[in-house]
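hey so i finaly got around to running the thing on F-box domain-containing protein from Caenorhabditis nigoni. pasting the sequence first so u can double check i didnt mess up the copy paste, my clipboard has been acting weird all day
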Amino acid sequence: MVSLLDMPDVPMNLILGYGGPSVIFSLRKVCNNLRDYIDRTMPELHLKAIDICLGYKRITITWSHYLENVEISYMLHGNGYKTIVGENEKFVENVDYMEGFWNDYNLLMKFQNHSLQSFELEMNNSMDVDDVSKFLKQYQNSWLIKTQYLSLGIFQGDKFPMILQHLDANCLNSIRFFRRRKYDKNIDFTEIVKLDQWKNAKEFRSDNLEISAPMKHFTHFSKINTEFEYILTEPESLNVLKEAAIRSPKFEKFIIEYHTFIESRQRLSEVFGKPFFHDDRQNKWLWFFNTCREEKILKIDNTEMSDRIYFSLIDSSMVPNGAEVKNL
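ok and heres what it spat out for the C-alpha cells, dont ask me to read them lol
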C-alpha cells in the first residue's frame, strides 16, 4: 500500500489542499517528514471564516471551512493551558494559554492565502484588562488577515473604545454591541463616535441596549439594527436617518427598535407625513420617498403591533397603486 509520503507531489498537494483545518493539524503531528512536507509546500487551506471569542482566561476560535467547522478552546489550567476540541482535551505545561492560541493561529494562517469571507472578534467584559491589552498587541503583530468582512462584537462596554483603537480602521466593516441584561451599565458613546474605526465601519447592530447618542453619529452606516433611547420623546430625530437613507448611495437597510408604543404611531405621521395604509388586518403604515438612486425608492413601514420601524430600498415598480412618493 502506498503511503502519503510515497505519493507524487501533485496528488499529494490535491489531497492536502482539500483538507480542512483538522486535517492539517493532524497530519503535521503524524511524523517529522510529513510535517516538513506540509510546511514546505504550504497547501491552501481555503478557510471561509474565523470567529474568535474571548472570555475570562479562555479563548475559543471557530475555523469555518466548506468541509467542516472546527471549534477549539484554549484556557488557563494549572501551570499551563488546556485545549478542548469536541470531547478531546489536551494539557500543555509551562505555556500561557494565550501563547498557545497564537502559536496555533499563526501556524494555520500560513496556509490561508485567499481572503476570508468574514472575521469576527467577540470580547466578553469579564476578560482581564491586561489580557485584553496583551491579546490586541499580539493581534497587531500576528499574520495579516485577508478578509472581506471584519466584524467586532462586545459584551458590555467599558473596554469598547480601547478595543476599537487597536483594529484597522480601513478593514473593520461591522460593529456589534450586546449587553446581557437590560439593567447592566449602559455604554457612553461620546469618545467612540470620534474614532476612525467607528466612522469607517459600514454596519452597526446592538442587542439589549438603548442608545442615547444622537442619530447623526449613525448616518454613515449602510445597515443599522438597534434601539434608540429617545425615539419617542424626540421622534423628529428619525428625519436624520430618513435623510441619510435618501441621500446616501451606500444605504441598504435600517431597523429601528422602540418600546412603549403609546401615541408613537401618531408621532410617526407627524414626522414622515400622511402614511399609505396597507393590509387592514395588520394596520400597516407605509411611506415612500424618492432617493438619489435612479429607480430606487425608500420605503418606511411600521405595523400596529410591531415595535420596529423599517427603512429599506425597493424598485419604483414595487410602489403600490395610489401611494404617494414624496420628495425630501
